[in-house]
Each structure stands twice: as structure tokens, then as C-alpha cells.
Amino acid sequence: GENVEQHPSTLSVQEGDSAVIKCTYSDSASNYFPWYKQELGKGPQLIIDIRSNVGEKKDQRIAVTLNKTAKHFSLHITETQPEDSAVYFCAADTGGFKTIFGAGTRLFVKA
Amino acid sequence: DSGVTQTPKHLITATGQRVTLRCSPRSGDLSVYWYQQSLDQGLQFLIQYYNGEERAKGNILERFSAQQFPDLHSELNLSSLELGDSALYFCASSPSVGPSDTQYFGPGTRLTVL
Predict the structure, then answer these.
(1) Mean pLDDT of chain B
(2) In chain A, which end has fewer C-beta atoms inside a 10 angstrom radius, N or C?
(3) DSSP B59
């Protein structure tokens, strides 16, 4: 069935280092890949998204890359800061009007 | 602030009871989505409504039902509650039918079933 796998489940980095979170999806019809950040006690907030006609998208310290052939997409955060600490979710749409979320990555940025 | 509101923020109830969670979408958004977030299961899609009509269904139990009203707010009804229904319930909204629309999430309702 439709599935999105996300790795790693936990990531700990030093402030100023980069963080990379990877996702793979199973539905070749997927065209939209959003990334959400969830802070403690809050709802997920969209931080960046990418559509299948684009290979890479950047917004300041955040970038997302997409490899449709391999069904992989990744989130890159550069120059990490303590306020980047949160749970990050990747997601993919499906042909059936659903959005499937990955299991989440808990990012710790150590000062 | 996403513009999506959910009430109540917290709900504590007993097994066997029935509760209603309420969601108001962002102004102008026609789609409402409901998700369940348990500690060990991430975000599970339950159901989507678009302009009052059910559009997509996920892993929603038969004990759960939802509807979207003419003013576009939505309610999620959970009945015959079990301990395992304790979770965070999120509502999200998007401008059109999606799912390639950006979804904006509300702050969630924390349900505790004792």
C-alpha cells in the first residue's frame, strides 16, 4: 500500500552543523512533498514543500531535494540553531486524495 | 498562528462515552482534514471533507464520524470511547480539494480517555 518511510527517527547535532532527514515514498503518482515542523504542544507547521516538476528548492537555511526516479526526498537544514529543535515530518500526496506522513524525526540541536 | 481553530484544547472523559471535537478552517479554505496523532504512531489521516462533502477516507474507525457544515466548520464525533483512543486530534484546512494543496494545521485537541 501507500507508504512514506522517514529516517532517522532521532537526530542530534551540534549548533551550527547541518542536519539531513531522508524520506522514501511508494506511490509513483505522488506529486507533492511537504515538510512540517512540530514543536512541543503545537500543531505541525509547513516549513517547505516541493512539487514533482522541481528537483530542489531552497528557503534560507532550509532546502529540499527530490529524486522522483528513486522516490526519495530529503530535508537539509544548514547552520542549525537551538530553535530548530523539534519533530519534523515529511509527507507525500497520493493519487487517492490522501496525504501520507512519515513517522517523524526528532531533531535535537545542542548549544 | 495558522488561522485554524480547534476546540476544546483538552478533553478528559471515560470509556464508553461520546465526545465531539470542533474545527474552524482558515477563512476561504474549503477543505477540512482530520488526523489522529498517538505517541507511537505519528500522524494518521482519518477523513477529509470538501465544501460539505466527504472527499477521502483514511483509517477511521466505524465508531468515529465527521461532518462539515454549510459554514465550513467541521466536527469529529468519537463514540464508545476506548483507552486506545487517547491521542491528539488535529484538524487541517486547505483552499481547495487537494491533496496537493498546502494543509494548515490547528493547535489540536488532546483527548484523554480514562
Answers:
(1) 93
(2) N
(3) S
Residues of chain A with C-beta less than 8 angstroms from the C-beta of B58: 98
Closest partner residue to B103 (CB to CB) among A42, A94, A99 is A99
Lookup: cell for B38: 498517538
Per residue in B6-37, pLDDT tens? Answer: 999 999 999 999 999 999 999 999 999 999 99
Q: Which residues of A touch B103 (CB under 8 A)?
A: 34, 46, 99
Mean pLDDT of B34-60: 89
* Residue in the block written with cell 540541536: A109
Q: What is the nearest CA distance from A78 to chain B, expressed in angstroms?
A: 24
- Measured CA to CA, the distance from residue B96 to residue A23 in angstroms comes to 26
* Closest approach of B5 to chain A, Cα-based (Å): 11
Structure confidence at residue B4 as a pLDDT band (50, 70, 90) = very high
